[in-house]
Amino acid sequence: MAARESHESSSMSKFSYHVYMSFRYKDIGRTFADHLYTDLLNGGFRTFRKEDELEEGHQNLSNTIQASRIGIVIFSENYASSEWCLDELVSILERWRSVNLSILPIFYNMDPSDVRKQKGSFEEPFTRYEDRDKTLTGERKNKWIEKVKQWKIALKEIADLGGMVSQNQADGYESKFIKEIVKEVGRKLSRTVLDVALYPIGLDSRIKEIDSWLQDGSAEVGILTISGMGGIGKTTIAKTAYNLNFDKFSGSSFLADVRKASEHHNGLVRLQRQLLSNILGKRVEKIHNLDSGIIKIQEAVCCRKVLLVLDDVDDIDQLNSVLAMKDWFYPGSKIIITTRNEHLLRSDISCKNYRVKIFDRKESLQLFSLHAFKQDHPPDNYIDLSRRVVIKCGGIPLALKVLGSSLCERGIDIWESALKKLEAIPDHEILKKLRISYDCLQDDHDQNMFLDIVCFFVGKKKQFAVTILDGCGFYSVVGIQNLIERCLITVENDGKLKIHQLILDMGREIIRHESPWLPGKRSRVWRHKDSYNVLMEYTGTGRIEGLVLDMQMLKDFKSNTTSFQEFRFDAFSRMKKLRILKLSYAHVLGSYDDFPEEVKWIYWNGFQLKSIPTDFPLESLVALEMKRTRLEQVWKGIKYLEFLKILDLSHSHGLKTTPDFIGLPNLESLILKDCVKLVYLHESVVYLDVLTFLNLRDCRNLKKFPKKFGNLKSLEKLIISGCTELITSVSELGKLESLTVLHADNVTLGQPLSANNLITPWRSFLKSWFSTPGNYPESVRFSLASLSHSLLNISLSNCNLHDESISVDLSSLSSLQFLNLSENPFYGLPQSIINLSTLQDLWLDACKNLKILPQLPSSITKLKAIDCTSLESIMNLPNLLDSLYLDVDGCEKLSEVQGLFKLEPIENFSEELINILGDFNLNSIQELEVELYNKMSHTKKRLSVQGLFEFDILSTYLPGSEVSNSFNYVTKGSLVLSFNISPAPKTKIIGLNICVVYARSSERRFRLWGESSHSGSWYTFYIKVVNVTKGLKWVYGPTFIGIPGPKEDMTYLSHWKLGNELEIGDEVNVSVVGWGLTFQMKLLGVNLVYCEKQEEIKSDFESYMLPSYQVGGMAYFFSHPEYFASKNRSDNNSVLRSILVENLFEDRVETAGSSNLDEEESDFDFDDDEYADEEELEEILQWTSD
Fold it and tell me: Which one of 84, 692, 779, 972 has the lowest number of neighbouring Cβ atoms within 10 Å?
């Protein structure tokens, strides 16, 4: 039996795709074909379209056709203009003839007779094809005539099959026509699938990873969880993946709503019965209990490869019966589980997790519009309203669907009213779905902590929240983890707590329902207006545990007065359970006698008194934050606050002294940022044994640290940036043995001594020493190596560090990961920096004297050297074309990055290399100058004629156009040249010489585009070389671009060392593509370069097959600026890839445009089709200018 099932499974999976789509992408790739593709996927049909597999060559494409069950050929207006499409059609028909592939022709706004007879829009391309044989000879001519003949036969044959004609079906409605096509595909394939979303927006990208996992060919029994918050689309994704893959398994079952089903009597038994019925393909009547069901399921799954989906699983108990029999499943079986609990499975169970991402703004607006307007975009008068709703939905498909449907066909006044209501009371249907995660929390401990977080801790650091919540009696570390696993909260990369807006609304709505009309009877009062009324009307009760009031958030208050609002402490007298109080710009008067004594966190922004009164009850505080206050001293005398862990007095501009810290034995964080009158820290600070964080940023009058500052053995993070008067002993900093972060930007470090041994200002002391390089007495010299060896993160920007300060052995900083030495006057980095084996980020922005960089450690992943105006060369960069991100914006003198490019005066190159570029007099050009734009540094510079060497390509720019006269192949019309490589006696092909002559497009265009704030975006063009015979394509964008002067021509010359990739008889195409709006291309010339010598001219670059620059199987995009731009925007790599292929690699004819553009031309359209592709390409590629 097992053998039979195995054979059946093999037979079912011999097809990789249900549908193969053939169409002209430029015509309908983003419209009709894309909509059809999406609907086919939604219907569960695995569909191939060729831009999905850009690396496919002709042979692989043929294999893909072989592995498809039905071919859809869509004829559109310009279908016949694509030789690729016609070749593809021939391959499809060959497959149809040989193994009876099902074919469905689609005539999209086309008359089938025009296709059959090559009339209408098909006539002109075929006239061109038939004329081409006049330019060919011999065998190539015969092959071309035969190819055109095959195309004609194929078009007649497929048109004779009939098909579906858009203008004759579905009353001309495109959406209905697409649904008819999907139904026809289903009929041809006899498929039954699960119903999924009406509008499957975003599904394609979200199922790709799951799809790949389902088809990985593994013999293991695989388990995958799809997790995410309620309403995010987990079930829809699971259904789509199931539809696409169930027929690749011998048995399959989709069990919906497991959580809800398990709540009913014998619910799990019913699910077992459904599972067996689905897998066996027959109705199973009797299962008496779970145990007998398990035995029957074991018998069913042990002999066949199955796909099992368990939807909406909430509890591990609902899975145990399945997981217990995992070893019984047939090899290669797959189990998918959708859940809100990200860590539902035990750690000892091997599984893969896919966390569903929310919709982005574009997807959200599209899905909402489809439900609200039955089209993928809002009408003009609803755009702003729609965007407001979309923002409210926060990328959750359920919310977009519910609100879109509810507002469909409603007037603007209804929309306005509905939006106001949503601000106050969220939609019930959405909240009902979201609340399931809250109700399923294990106990009221996690539920109460969740309610605290939604009211008081969103956007706060996780560790800060843990400190206060622990002080409130919660077990917050495990509690927060439980909330994360239930997808109720997330922790961002910066450590801050984040909650989706709808989850936030759900939590706050739970609190509102405690007392819908009386906020004073709720456990937490988070709305500022409610808090204002509670305090003004004395309606607070013993139920209140937390209250937030920011007077600046009340519009009425802001419009009526600029003074602080006054309240009475009596208003708090009944709030005996108050734990959290957050006030901003509120002045409270009266006696503190009845103020709650169990408050754990007070945040009081704008506290008006000069000192905290002695009778203010602070004894239970865990955190005291008083920012932007009028405090001059915190409190009088010593306060014993044994629970206080956080003290934040930032921006208190009148604060002159800090409190005595003896009474604060458990203080962990002390934040005194921007306390500009603070001169000294109280000497008792050195006895804070558990202090881990000290922030003194911008305390610009702080003079020094207390003695024995190095005794702070627990201090991990010290921020003293902006303390411009601070004099500190480097030796004391070196004693901070736990220090991991030191930020001391704009601070001069050291402890210089005057003649009478008194401390003097650092800057004045060193003034005389800086005037004589090298005069640094040992007692005042600062060195990086003297800092704590535990440091991971150092920022010393603008600290006046000279070479003497950093030219030391840095090996002692062996744990360092981040180093910022920006805006310092040193000339170079020490060679020992290579020993920092864990260093990842190195920032050297605005180091104006820096000329060259030493070899850096292999761990470097980001090098920032912005505005290093003296930097000329960068050598030996590690991970250059792997993990390194390089930013050299503003480095105007940069002429070499080893391994990338080298720019130098052309006379410095060998005579052999210069001669290979062409026949021109070197002496005649030595006095010439050209203006060059560096696309990596985005700078312009006027230089003598330079030679650029990159990617084994040597190039130069020359004023004028005379050189072009020496080229064999020249075109002034279409900037495309095609030729065949002919043999030359006793010579060897070493490459191509390419010449491009161009000028400014017009003075007006040049001013508008070339001189704009993002001018570099338009100084560009690309050279494309195609070896048609071998199927190889190269597109090259020079790192440096010559800028022609007014009414002047500029000549670009380049030599491509392509000898190993060119052979006698190869057909080669050369063209200019993707030029910016600033330029007008005038001429293209090409020469083949031969050499009598057998050895090739040497270069620093080895190959035209660099994987890092590969955008397809046999296509390479050579452009350093675009490569490093994409390193900084990895999320758009796939977009970049598709745009590149469409705009630069697709075979098409480029026209040079008019050669006599009038300088006063004023009537041009910025969205002209001539430039639309270039604009889109620039938008993708020019990421560094954002």
Answer: 779
Q: Look at residues 720, 675, 663, 722 and name the one whose alpha carbon lies nearest to residue 693.
A: 720
Cβ–Cβ contacts within 10 Å for residue 840, how many? 15
pLDDT in tens, 175-232: 888 888 888 887 777 555 677 777 778 888 888 888 888 888 888 888 888 888 888 8
Q: Residue 592 class from Cβ within 10 Å (0-12 exposed, 13-18 middle, 19+ buried)?
A: middle
Q: How many residues does the chain have?
A: 1186
Model pTM score: 0.70
DSSP 3-state assignment of 955? strand
Report the alpha-carbon distance of residue 296 to residue 213 in Å, rounded.
28
Sheet holding 1040-1043, edge to edge: 939-944, 929-934, 1040-1043
Q: How many CA atoms lie within 13 A of 215 on its CB side?
A: 19
Three-state secondary-structure class, residue 583: strand
Which residues on adjacent β-strands are paired with residue 902?
Answer: 896, 949
Among residues 1075, 959, 1076, the alpha carbon closest in space to that of 1012 is found at 1076
Structure tokens at 1134: 């796939």
DSSP per-residue string spanning 834-847: GG-TT--EEE-TT-
Per-residue pLDDT tens digits for 1067-1123: 899 988 877 667 888 889 998 888 765 455 444 444 444 556 777 667 788 887 766
Token look-up 């039996």 returns 1
C-beta atoms surrounding 283 within 10 Å: 8
| DSSP string of 171-236, one letter each residue | GG-HHHHHHHHHHHHHHHHT-------SS-TTHHHHHHHHHHHHTS--SS-EEEEEE-STTSSHHH
Pairing of strands 102-107, 306-310: unpaired
How far is the C-alpha of 661 from the C-alpha of 663, rounded, in Å?
Answer: 5
Helices (H), 771-853: 803-806
**How many angstroms separate the CA atoms of 1111 and 1106, rounded?**
10
Cα–Cα distance for residue pair 385/397, rounded to 1 Å: 18
50-54, 366-370, 1090-1094: range with highest mean pLDDT: 366-370
Cα–Cα distance, 546 to 567 (Å, whole number): 17
Question: Within the chain, what is the greatest distance between any pair of CA atoms?
Answer: 108
Distance CA 296, CA 302 (A): 10
Are β-strands 646-648 and 669-671 bridged in parallel, bridged antiparallel, or unpaired? Answer: parallel
For 633, residues 6+ apart whose C-beta sits below 8 A from its C-beta are 610, 611, 655, 656, 657, 659
Report residue 889 as tokens: 């914006």
List all residues 6 or more positions away from 918 whose beta carbon is below 8 Å from its beta carbon: 963, 966, 993, 995, 1053, 1087
Structure confidence by residue, pLDDT tens digits, 989-1039: 888 899 999 988 766 655 554 454 444 456 788 899 998 888 888 889 899
**Across the strands, what pairs with 567?**
588
Neighbours of 1048 (CB within 10 A): 12
Question: How would you label 391-421 residue by residue, b for 16+ Cβ within 10 Å and e otherwise?
Answer: ebbbbbbbbbbbbbeebeeeeeeebeebeee
Q: Find where tokens 């990421």 sit.
A: 1183
Coil/strand/helix, residue 498 = strand
Q: How far apart are CA 65 and CA 20, in angstroms?
A: 7
- Alpha-carbon torsion angle 42, 47, 50, 55, nearest 10: 100
Which DSSP state fits 1150? P
Identify which of 1047, 1048, 1040, 1045 has the alpha carbon closest to the alpha carbon of residue 1021: 1040
Coil, helix or strand at residue 1015? helix
Q: Cβ distance 744 to 721 under 8 Å?
A: yes
- Three-state DSSP class for residue 681: coil
Give the dihedral sign, CA 466/472/476/479.
negative
Q: Which residues are catalytic?
A: 88
Tell me if residue 34 falls in helix, strand or coil. helix
In terms of phi and psi (left: phi > 0; alpha: psi -120 to 50; beta: otherwise), the region of 197 is: beta
